[in-house]
Model the fold of this input.
Amino acid sequence: MSESTMSGVSGVQEMTVAAAFAGMKNVMPVVFRAGCPDCRGNFELAASALRLAIGATSRTTFYSFTCPDCGAAVRKPAGERIVELLTGGGVKTLRLTSVG
Done:
């Protein structure tokens, strides 16, 4: 495999791809602990398994997932701290807007 270089831009030093990524470390994927109210299972979910909906009020702000144990669709309220943790962890977010 050959090393690519970045050059041709005025004032930019030539650098190999290997040198550009040399300081990066492996990052562990973010997982969230959750529980199912139906089967009472406890498990860890990747950010991709969760969805966050942010509405105009606390009643319309929630996160949801499918229980990996029983397959139930789970929807739980999300306060400010939960919203902060989920968005910071890469959970896909849907912003709900009212029509009218």
User: Anything to note?
Assistant: Helices lie at 17-20, 80-88.
